[in-house]
User: What shape does this take?
Amino acid sequence: MRNLTYLVAMSLDGFIAAPDGTYADFLFEGDHMTALFEEYPDALPTAGRRALGLDDVPNRTFDTVLMGRGTYEVPGGLPSPYAHLRQYVVSSTLTGTPSDVAVISDDVVPAVRELKAESGLDIWLCGGGKLAAALVSEIDRLVLKVHPIVLGRGVPLFDGEFPVHKFAKVETRTFASGVVFTTYTRC
Assistant: This one.
């Protein structure tokens, strides 16, 4: 069985993006980026992998990405941002995606359970907050990249109501950039 991993950058005050869905205020330089490139090259957009010379690096952790419509349509986004992964967008209204981007328009929980039952690498929950809230009971691992910024408002890490779910801390790493990676697993 495959795991669903919510790997996401967030601000100190719990936001994964600005109110308009952009993330320009997050840090894109520093030693945390080196760790990200080394440990999660599959979580980089295909164009970024190409620019860094990583397009021949096989996927290590993920072979599937799951994202909400806001994450998929972030301003300046690409029609097939993660072409090196199986791409799924959760939306009841999105149409016109490229053939390599599947749309889940029905209840996402059964669809994710089907994906988890398949063989292969893990599934990356890329964002957004509403989708994370809808899937909290299916998330096996959280990898939070906490940036030393305060946004004040924006897209919350989990945007919605759900029962309490407990996670156990597995690892915390602090980088010179001030970014902290903390990994949790579902209890």
Q: What stands out?
A: The chain has one domain: 4-186.
